[in-house]
Amino acid sequence: MAKQRVLVVGLGNMGMSHALAYAKIDGYELVGLCTRNIDKVELPPELQGVAKFNNFEQALAELKPDVVSVNTMPDTHADFAIKAMEAGAHVFVEKPMAISAEDAERVVEVAKRTKRKLVIGYILRQHPSWIKFIEIARELGTPLVFRMNLNQQSNGETWEWHKRLMQSFPPIVDCGVHYVDVMCQMTSAKPVRVHAIGAKLTDEVPINNYGQLQVMFEDGSVGWYEAGWGPMVSEQAFFVKDVFGPKGSASIVMAENNAGVKSDDINAHTKTSQILRHYADMSRPDERIDVSDEPDHNALCEREQLYLLKAILEDLDLTDHMNDGVKSLKIVLAADESIHTQQVVTL
Predict the structure, then answer these.
(1) Angle at 86 between CA 319 and CA 69, to 5 degrees
(2) How far is CA 57 from the centre of its chain?
(3) Distance separating alpha carbons of residues 249 and 286, to the nearest angstrom
(4) Using CA of residue 127, residue 129, residue 133, residue 136, what is the dihedral sign?
(5) Taking the complete model, does pTM exceed 0.85, yes or no?
(6) Mean pLDDT for each consecutive 10-residue tract of the chain (347 residues)?
(7) What DSSP designation does 142 have?
(8) Which of 330, 327, 269, 272 is nearest to 301 (CA)?
(9) How far apart are CA 77 and CA 98, in angstroms?
(10) Residues 6 or more apart from 78 whose CB is under 8 A from it?
């Protein structure tokens, strides 16, 4: 079977990792790389010789790819994804897939109409340890309580990257979609209300660089998520991933040998080390499930692209995947609305 010819647009942290994944996977042929300053990008050996472009529309027209991987700034995601699907390409789009719920729904509508596969970059959905974490959570009864955060004390290059991201979204939206999506996988109940608070801790960015949301579900489950970016952010308790219900709790904990991990280390954002399981009836002692042999960031990006390839070759129905992407985006956008209106938002 012919390989899927891929155009990668956007070559930041995620785009570069995805480009390396396409170059490595046998079912793909990486035919184009596109970013505004392509001539200034230092490419690794695996990507040398691939056609380079600084204009997305030109690359799309000239290459006519089978797959387009969208890894640009969030405010271009919907537009690029739609143009790619209208041109006949399947699409991988980094999260969040749009900057509004309306645009996200439009992306999904185009995917359905053109019968193109659309995979959203929810990297934790391909992570074996997080899949196990969610599986345990579903055994804890109803309602559930979710407690999650990802604060990053970013400096230098990572702070510059965060400032660019905050031209589109605050951290509570950009990172929040991942962990709200995890909550929604743990309970199948409909989210009903969102409340949030936020703070702007620097004049270097135009929006809040800290936020915390609370979300309530139809089955009584409740959860919170917080995210802050910047050189002023505390390193204490920056990585909390915890859920409990009537039957006990499950928590992602870092082992002692991870004590020196920095909060802006991209590998630390998916790394689990151990899952701690507690039984409320004390019928069994607490379990520490060792998952230290989990894949690293680049290996997870490879798994995402293997999933896309499987969806294309086996014609997988991605309706639930796409709808879940819209749902989690609506929740975090409602949180941003709540901050600005100082009101609870009903979904």
Answers:
(1) 70
(2) 25
(3) 10
(4) positive
(5) yes
(6) 95 95 98 95 95 98 98 95 98 96 98 98 94 97 97 95 92 95 97 98 97 98 98 93 98 66 56 85 94 87 98 98 97 98 97
(7) S
(8) 269
(9) 6
(10) 97, 98, 99, 103, 104, 106, 107
